[in-house]
Amino acid sequence: MTATTLFPDYRSPWETDEHGMLREQAARFFRTEAKPNQERWARQHQVDRDFWNKAGAAGLLCTGLPAEYGGGGGDFGHEAVVLQERALAGDTAFGLAVHSPIVAHYIYAYASGEQKKRWIPKLTSGEMVLAIAMTEPGTGSDLQAVRTTAVRDGDHYVINGSKTFISNATHCDLLVIVAKTDPKQGAKGISLIVAETTDLPGFERGRVLEKIGQHGQDTRELSFTNMRVPVANLLGGVEGQGFYQLMEQLPRERLSIAVEGVAATEAALLETIAYTKQRQAFGKPLIDFQNTQFELAACKAEVLAGKTLVDHCIQRYLDGTLDAATASIAKLWVTDKQVEIIDRCLQLFGGYGYMMEYPIAQMYAAARVQKIYGGTNEIMKVLIGRSL
């Protein structure tokens, strides 16, 4: 059994005793319920549907949403500790990050009071699973170029289009769709519309996508053919606000990616330290070689730097002062380092590091997409550059 932290005396400055108790609960849950199922979930390309209900029953979903609407009543710190402990447990399958700290906040920020009261309790319990349909076959980080349309017809929108790379697409019951309500207006013509997907005519789940990593993460294509969604499900109640709503929420998404990224890097380093202590070469453990010590020492220093950067951003988010450029810095730096450090760790495993049965190989494959989703790291540099 590997250790659970590289820094037993380190405590995030924003972390309260309440956060600490949730951390212990999340650590027990993910190590017991998620870690043993990674290979099986990878084979079936999704977590078990009832795992969402188990996570809800354990109090790990929507922890940052207000209790008055059925959420956990906490703040982003509560969501951060759950994200961290999932990553530290070595889970690369459960789509928690999309559901709780990202898409649930679109519902909380922009849905009507009645919709919040109807949806949020089910999101918190795991009865409903969330996804967001942004990316299209020809559209990635350039969200203004989406081609999915939503044409009003009486009390409904008729939605046509297709989306790809959609996390939680198999299990989602509630889907936030990025669509053009006025294709002539560019960014000003984009709206966010929520579809309740159960038995919805015109809604189709496409092929499951074969990815480099995160094989247990539920990712597939979606398509909409004359799919009718009530006009009341327009987030914010006014057409053309979608692009601005996305821009408002994306810093939170990028911070969430950084939170999980640095925790996953720490998990990889812990796994590597444990391996090098027991693996023998030339009559002594790998950890006794100076090269091994130097590599691990350098990686440990950078993990601590990443933790302090992320903690700085979490505190700023809690204070209401996190700006888009700083969130982009966290996402850029952490994910670049995540890929680099896990690669260095894998090297110390030798040939075994290339075998998918080893957690380090799963972590290595899972890390690469971190530099792509949530806005590519090239886009992060553009956003940071604008702040100079």
Count of separate DSSP helical elements: 11
Widest beta sheet: strand line-up: 2-3-7-6
Largest sheet: 4 strands, antiparallel
Order of helices and strands: HHHHHHEEEEEEEHEEHHHH
Low-confidence spans:
none
What Rg, in angstroms, do the CA atoms define?
Answer: 21 Å
| Shape, principal axes of CA atoms | globular
Summarize model confidence as the mean pLDDT. Answer: 96
The CATH architecture of the largest domain would be: Up-down Bundle
The total strand number stands at 9
Name the helicity range.
40-55%
Count up the domains. Answer: 3
Distance between the termini: 46 Å
CATH fold field value of the largest domain: Butyryl-CoA Dehydrogenase, subunit A, domain 3
Name given to the CATH homologous superfamily of the largest domain: Butyryl-CoA Dehydrogenase, subunit A, domain 3
Structural class, from helix and strand content?
alpha+beta
Q: Which CATH class of the largest domain?
A: Mainly Alpha
Strand content: 5-15%
